[in-house]
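Appendix B, example 12.
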Amino acid sequence: MREGPPTPEQLIGNIAAARATTVADYMAAANSHYYATRDPLGAAGDFTTAPEISQMFGEMIGVWIADLWGRAGSPAFHYVELGPGRGTLAADALRAMARFGCIPAGIDLVETSPTLRAAQWARLPAATHHDEVDALPDNLPLLIVANEFFDALPVHQYIRTMDGWRERMVERRGEVFAAVPGDADAAAAIPEMLRSKNVGTIVETAPVSAAIMQRCAFRIARQGGAMLVIDYGYSGPAAGDTLQAVKAHRFADPFADPGEVDLTTHVDFTALADAARSGGAAVSAVATQGDWLQRLGIDARLQSLAAAAPDRAKELQGQRDRLVTANAMGELFKVMAITAAGWPTPAGFTGDSA
């Protein structure tokens, strides 16, 4: 039987017991507790993701999968989602896929939160849950979706000090936690093009994210299929502190109330692309979410929904704008696909690969 998560007091005590812990370990412990003990989504939670904003988001992903599947010869496959929230995206995507006869042989969700697993089963009673990607089925191609998954995985942070590069460590100082430079030289962890940055510069690396992406790519390269990654992020290497906390839809101190706030960082899509290639998969160009959704036909879907429910036309337009426009989610959020050798070029991307 899986042990329950520690209480907030126990979590704080565990972190404080060590002289110092890396930002990555701090983030992993805090987020593990956070997601295990609540449903963080929606107006009553701490943040809202694209699938909760509009059904059109999940439907466009379903159209993307159905198109790729059809051009690949309509093989049997498993639908996989990493960190599927309440199951809203999967339910919308699977409904859209079914209109094209694209029915998965299995629905496999990688999720460890008991609270969110219960919400997912309510929408997807046929789904199978897994604790990690290595437990996914190995008998058929995998079509994997990872929406706002990698941003919540732990990152290591490094800071340039007067004495050189040091890893940032989290330690308790009185009643609060704070990030401080460690003692050991960490220059080897810094990309060469960033090593000469000024004192005070922060650089982030995400080896856990790279490892998961590589394992997904190994599976896809061996079994066939594709993976779609959607998250807020950038093309690295780049310097900057992107660690942030959100509580009740407002930004909060990442080092206050560990386990009671959502901790995330911006995703380095170049690092994910490199990890996917090392796993044997082909990598698409990186697109902005707004451009990708428009190429897939979100505006046509908006017109269809508005025609069927004219009283909701203004609401639906607002949902579309929130997903697509540059001053909302359209520019900050990026989209990237990886595919197995011999699979078609995925829709919605233009230009050179990442």
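The longest strand covers residues 164-173. The radius of gyration is 21 Å.
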